[in-house]
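User:
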Amino acid sequence: MDPAYPRANTIMVDKGYIVSVGNEKGVSPTHARRIIDCTKGTLLPGLNDAHIHLLSYANSLHSLDCSHRTVRSIADLQKALFAKAESTPWGQWIRGVGYDEFYLNEKRHPTRHDLDRVLKDHPVRLDHRSSHACVLNSHALEKIGISSDSPDPHGGVIIRDSSGHPTGLLLEMNRYVSERMPRVTEETLANSINEVSKQLLSWGITSIQDATPACGVEKWKTISRLAKSGNLRQRLVFMPGIEYVEEFVSQGLHYKSGGHNIRIGPVKLMVTCTSGSISPSINDIRELVHRAHKAGYPVAIHAVEEDVILAVSRILVEDSMTDNILRPDRIEHCSEATPRVIRQIVDAGVSVVSQPSFIFESSQRYQSEVPLNLQKSLYPFKSLIEAGIPLAAGSDAPVASPNPWQALYAAVTRKNVSDQPFHPEQNLLLEEAINLWTSNAAFVAGEQQSFGSLKPGMFADIVLLDRDITRCSPEELLNVKVRIVVIGGEIVWES
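Assistant: Predicted structure:
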């Protein structure tokens, strides 16, 4: 991924860094301790998932899989929950993840009554695959203190029936619910993180950017311990929640604090439109962004809808004009990237971290539910790149699979899991797509001087694939296997 050597055939690594890249005549392996023959394979910089929810994904691995691959109706959900209860001690929480009403035969969300019919003695929580909704049974609602008299919490919505009683469906309240559930032990979490780390290595992912909202200093300390214990092998950029900026600063934790393996990135701000209006309010967003910038932190703003993206990008323009500083701010998702949105983002001078994995997993739903005139502006990767906007890719796992090869396939074909194209005029060239997980991902993390390309002086974070992906068909991308993963010059995974 270095323009100087677009197809170099030899790389020398020493003391954790790349020291030479070129052809066989330019690099002497005479004194090398180990020579790896990469014949017929491809060497790439280690892949970087620029938007993942690490702890949520780790927890999801041991929850009940309620995705459309295993559940096609509410009756299927009920059977799966009943079976799970047989191996769950009485009274303990049962959690399912990944349900999607679009793929259920009933074309609706389950309710607490649906869950109560099979489980009354266990509190039950089902997380929607978007991570922006969940459904609780009556026992769970009681456990976390939600009743007919409960007001909607700030930014959240309790869906109610015609009599005003909660149906069990909660919007933008996953954090609210999690804070009132029993905590997972750190030992359990460590085991789950270890499992996630191995899985990510098997796909060639050597670094990640955790975009979980509302993360405070305690969560930073927890993830730091997990990384130092060896359970997490990937390099990690950690995004504090924007409301915790002062807490981080008071403890001497600033943007880019940390070491080579884990460091602090931009602060995360969630801006939604679930209740029909922008939340937080425009004035609150303006104040939060200004406080973050004043503390030296760039911001990473979750913005999906056109109106939200336009509002937050205007605020970023305004704030940069107050002190004439252009910061490495970013917009996460930027789903409805209309021409007007793209022009505004260019003016704001910010990066975008988007999700090709959504094209692979969700474009069938988009075609069914999104107005036709808006569909062409959903995740328009080519238009964003042609406008000169720095674009990186994240999986948003557990919302979508963190498998980058499915997402890379979608980026170059715009095809979904059923092999149907979704606005193929937004296809990317293979090299453009690879950049989303390498050089561009490093850029949006502010780490472009350390990794993201195979150049002398960079960390030796390298992935060896089983084939020359520049000469294979797009369909073969789905079958790519990783042979070797190197982080900091050390082989950490081999197939």
